[in-house]
Amino acid sequence: MSENKGNYNASNITALEGLEAVRKRPGMYIGSTDTKGLHHLVWEVIDNSIDEHLAGHCSQIDITINEDNSITVKDNGRGIPTGMHEKLQKSALEVVMTVLHAGGKFDKDTYKVSGGLHGVGVSCVNALSSYLKAEVHRDGKVFVQEYSIGIPKESVKQIGTTDITGTFISFKPDADIFESLEYKYDTLANRIREMSFLNSGLTLTLTDKRDIIDGEPKSETFFSEGGLEEFVKFLDSGRTPLIERPIVVKGKEENVEVEVALQYNTSYSENIYSFVNNINTREGGTHVSGFRRAVNREFTKYGEEGGHFSKLKFKIAGEDFREGLTAIVSVKVPEPQFKGQTKGELGNSEVTGIVSRAVGDALKVFLEENPKLSKRIIDKVILAATARHAARKAREMVQRKNVLTGTGLPGKLSDCSSKDPVESEIFLVEGDSAGGTAKQGRDRFFQAILPLRGKILNVEKAMEHRIYENEEIKNMFTALGVSIEEKDGERHLNMEKLRYHKVVIMCDADVDGSHICTLILTFLFRYMKPLVESGYVYIATPPLYMVKKGKQFRYCWDEDERQEAIDLYSGGKEDANIKTQRYKGLGEMNAEQLWETTMNPEERILRQVTIDDAVSADIIFSKLMGDEVPPRRQFIEENARYANIDV
Fold first, then answer.
1. pTM of this prediction?
2. CA-wise closest residue to 414 among 366, 372, 389, 447
3. Could you state, in order of their start, the residue ranges of all structural domains in the chain?
4. What is the CATH number of domain 407-542+583-611?
5. Which residues contact 125 (CB under 8 A, 6 or more apart)?
6. Of 103, 106, 477, 496, which one has the fewest beta carbons inside 10 Å?
7. 441 near 592, Cβ under 8 Å?
8. Which fold would CATH assign to domain 228-386?
9. Residues acting as catalytic residues
10. Tens digit of pLDDT for each residue in 260-289?
11. 492-541 residue pLDDT tens
12. Cα 355–chain centre separation
């Protein structure tokens, strides 16, 4: 037993290795040097403050995006120790900031649980920043040290006195490392909101000094008293709940804390999000396995003992119990074992049973005490099972028809001659007219065209078997070569025969085009998510304008570019010979123009569709395409100032 248990000072700081390789191979440490890696730096700094909260010493964290895209994170925790580190003979603050894997997380008496242990810590942020300043308020004194690309400019020095405690970190990412230095407010806000739900009682603020509204910088405060129960309600804000309030589970066994909130709604999608020590485990793991085991076991037992499944001619599957289920599974594990550097999946085998027992006990109580609500859920399960059975038949009919008709490719598809998926791309084009133009303008070797007539089915409001009755959706399945298959009672997308590694949505640049694009994205997100996760989905961006003077012309993608073109041709003077054409649809361009602006790989602009935050993506799709009108109206009102709609 350590003599300094309960304290936090220089002797708690353990140095494991140096910082040499971080700048040479940043991708190994933060995943990438794109915008995702850029935001990862912020998560590493906030994680340290969150760990202070988990240890019971921090109640507020303030995050600021400064005018120059630098970041400042302030907390009111204990402050990083500044005393002399015995082994390294330098300030513990300098050790934490300059030595990879150095910190109090490795001392079990300092932090019982920590999310930062599997990460790379603030020293990596320091190494990848052109400038970083660490200011510590501790023991009534203020200590400061500044760094450039991880190298201290001078020793830690005391600059004053203070009556507060905490750590203030300001850093500017290095332009030589990152592709972009621009922080996205929404990306930060979504993650910070998530953290507030996962840490009830913690206040987090986000301020953006780049965005001034009525003389004040844009700012939000995130605070949750209800924790995961509020989180589930927030996730389901665009859906109709099936039960009055979420079922909440709290338990502790073998120093593993379990907290779960779950709610059933009338939708047809399953949404389970999992966290370990505040880390979003996107691939799930043993805690999710334990949760699913408990849900399957308890609802199966309840349904069979009550005779609710007796009339069914087929067996209930695990996924039937999870249709319309939104759940947050959060565990605090003293020594988490993650699979992979991205912390995507928890591997601790003992957690499965711990979560299963905690959730199972809570569900037993709920089912016994709420017979009417329980019957409502069971009816939903039976409906899901019936729909799944019908969907399987519908899928089999579509696939059988494809086999009988030979190639199985839809007649409207104009395929490319290349059979190599890596170099092949397919354009999903709005309308037969634009599809015809695209067929004429394309490069037939590697570009395929599939025209889509009208608006496809809104899959957010439809049972699965209904989607196979929609001709346009059937055509997308068969053209892409993918299929939904069942294995071990679970559905998955089989991409072994995927025919294109670029799936490009090409719609008109108007309101209807945006709606069709959203319908297609909803379908892909709900039924072909691995396509999106693999980076195969793109959105084409046809130009909005063509500015012309005589034989000179320039395509413009936004209002600023249009004005630049006018200024270029006019020399800043009024010129009646300058004409502006506004493209309201793809059909207004001829084949050559469509190729030049939207399809030519040398000139076009494609926006790759990514899922940086599955939670946020799910919320947006459910709001925009779900049953509930008020959340959709609120979303439109909040984002209307970014829209430029032609009247």
1. 0.77
2. 447
3. 10-222, 228-386, 407-542+583-611, 543-582
4. 3.40.50.670
5. 41, 44, 45, 132, 169, 171
6. 496
7. yes
8. Ribosomal Protein S5; domain 2 (3.30.230)
9. 430, 508, 510, 512
10. 999 999 988 889 999 999 888 888 999 999
11. 889 999 999 999 999 988 878 888 998 999 999 989 999 998 999 999 99
12. 25
